[in-house]
Fold 6-phosphogluconate dehydrogenase NAD-binding protein.
Amino acid sequence: MTEKKLSVGFIGLGIMGQHMAGHILAAGHPLNIYNRTRAKGDALVARGAKWCDGPGAVAEASDITITIVGYPADVEQIYLSEGGLIAKARPGSVLIDMTTSSPALAAKIAQVALARGVSALDAPVSGGDIGAKAGKLAIMLGGDPESFERVLPVLELMGGNIALMGKAGAGQHTKMANQIAIASTMLAVAESISYADAAGLEPMQVLKVIGTGAASSFLLNGLGPKMVDEDFAPGFFIHHFVKDMTIALNEAERLGLDLPGLALARSLYLKLVDEGFGEEGTQALYRAYNAIHAEAR
Ligand code: NAP
């Protein structure tokens, strides 16, 4: 007899969510979906997903409900509002927030959910739209080990490297460590290309050489060529990265830590937002250096 698949709810069908939800559907789970803009669910509905009229309706219909929306404010509204996920979730079900959000909010959600007999895990991801499409995201979790084990087979449909990092909020703290590493690496990649260009080298050729040496990284090899080509289409929005760096800086301050690389990266990205580039991809940081170049020439 074939085992009955758990029903899964999925809220947030943007750049990341549409691929992640697609893998769950492809594995044969009944999928209940909701997104602020309905049209983004059309392709999944055409493949057999069931559209629900709000987060509460998704939770009522699902054994596991996954969210990957934009900002902590979106998460708070979806989980904690009247008629939201926690109010409507089936007792014994598991809620998983994969949005990059605040560790304190994750801890609060887990506590409120527990009081209703529902488990909530924070499970932010890394690997970008490419990792989401390939089902190869790194997934970092905070929450109780029993719920983690229960949802692991579903998480494995979206990611290759999945780790429980500690209690509620630990997944978001791990993601902040990730974003801090990315912030300074983005500066380094943009500066390296900018220097190569100013020195009269062919930047793409430089990337091909240094991309196999000690400077090699996912960002240098993946986003470096896009900087050279001035292809600033979003895989990861600048406005989302500014949100992440702001959460990380606030957490660092709370911990009594000074992180100058992170602060510098955030200030350059904020300038790009002010100039109207918040909807571009994070590789558009190169614009800041182009401008610096143009002034120097
Ligand atoms: P996105 O394309 O903006 O997707 C977010 C989706 O959530 C949108 O479709 C949005 O609806 C929906 N949404 C927002 N608030 C909602 C609400 N209250 N109710 C229902 N739906 C709501 O962003 P993304 O790139 O997929 O990123 C999603 C999250 O993952 C962000 O926190 C981001 O920082 C994080 N992340 C992104 C990447 C990446 O490379 N893109 C990598 C790792 C982590 P609309 O369609 O109406 O806008």
